[in-house]
Amino acid sequence: MKKLASLIIVGMLLSGCATPFGTKVGEVFTTGIANPVTTQQIYNLEAAYGVALSGAVAYRERPRCTKTALESVTNLCARRSIVVKLQDADRKAQIALGQLKAFVSANPTLDASALLDAASAAVTTFNQLQTSAL
What we know:
Elements: H1 2-16, H2 20-31, H3 39-60, H4 80-106, H5 113-133
C-alpha cells in the first residue's frame, strides 16, 4: 500500500512537469524574474529627493544663528545642528540612490525592491528633517 501511494505521488509530481505550470517553473530558472522596479519609479524617487534637497539648500543658505541672534519668527536663520543633520541625511540618501541605480542597471532580472525601499526611506527621512527645519 505504501508503494502504491508513493507511485501515485511521484506520478502526480511528474505529470506537473507536462503542464504549463511546469513550463513556467522551468522558465524562471532559465530566464530569471523580471525586475519589478521600473526606471519610472527611480525617476520619481529622484524627483522627490530633488525637492527635499532644494528645501535643505534654501535652509542652509540662511544666515547662521548665533548665541545672540537665535532663530525666531522675525529672525530666520540656520542652526548648525540642523545643517549637520541635513548633510548626514543627504549623504545617506545619495548613497542609497546610487546603490539602487547600480543594482537595477546591473541586475535587470532580479528583485531590487529591498533597495528601493531603503532608498525611499532615506529620502523620506531627509525630507522630514528638511521640512522640520523650515
